[in-house]
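Dear colleague,

Following up on yesterday's call, I've attached the two folding results inline so they're easy to grep. Please treat them as preliminary; we haven't cross-checked anything against experimental data yet. The first protein's sequence and structure tokens come first.
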Amino acid sequence: MTSALRYEWRRITSVPGTWIIGALVVLVAAGLQTLFVSIGDADPVPARNLAAGLVTPLSIGGFLFAAFGAQALGQEYRFGTIRSTLTLFPRRPTVFAAKLAVTALVTVAVLVLAAVVCVAVVGAAGWRLGFDGTGGGGVGGLAVRVVLVALGWLAWGFGIAGISRNTALGIVLPLVVAFVVETPLTVVLGEKAPWLVDLFPFGNAGQALTMAGDAWGALGIFGLWSLVVAGLAYLSFTYRDA
């Protein structure tokens, strides 16, 4: 397992796309946060100002984090390098776990950097920062949920790319489900079948990024969806021919 982790770390850090996506996450988050503080007003509750900075990297959706996952597996199929990888490491579950673990580590590192930049922008704008939040476990609980939601988006990109063996689909399909499918269905079914709307994955992902309501329950629903997608990818990767 250690050898597979080292191999995957060298691979993912040598791919230009990893650095490009990471830079996009940080730059887009910083730009959005600058826009938000320039057109908005500070919240009188310091914890909510801090929370605003923490969630900004995911405010446009997590498709850039899905791109990390899609690239980790989809690019191997695209360029045919998966056969070489499996020749070096024949145990497919080990390869799958190594890819997912290393990609998750990179995702968390980029997310933390983007969040630090956003919080710095909020502080530089003169907005008071603090930890005295209420609901959902306060700012500490929110920070944990931000990380887990980002990993959930990663699992969607990783899973769809693994199932379809298509990098682009791993990036685009989560975005389509979140904004093209769920949004109109929420409007149509909001009054007729609210229980169904409450099960939508990305609506719950958004709810998890708040400090009000059942944020942890929403995270649980999104997490289950993410695990299902990743689980299907595991079965596909393990039992289908390369």
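Below is the second protein, in the same order (sequence, then structure):
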Amino acid sequence: MTNGTSRNNALLEKIRQANGGRSLFASAICFCGAMAMLGFANMLCRFGLNIDLTYLLPWMIGGTVLWLFVPPLILWLWTGTPSGKR
């Protein structure tokens, strides 16, 4: 039978892997870059392909926020550091 602590450590290790060692500042820089790319893609689709993708942008922004900021937040609450380093 496994111990609850070993399960917590395994979950914490998976969250560390998903975070990739990024700090909150690095996540914020990545978010700015992702928003710039989404903006350029939206402009290309709107003016180049005549396709309106504004209904998808909130979902893509939400996914980006979840991917970039939830793992550091969990690590910060769990370990005390956003990067999860010991």
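For the second protein, one point worth flagging: The chain is about 75% helix and 0% strand.

Best wishes,
A.L.
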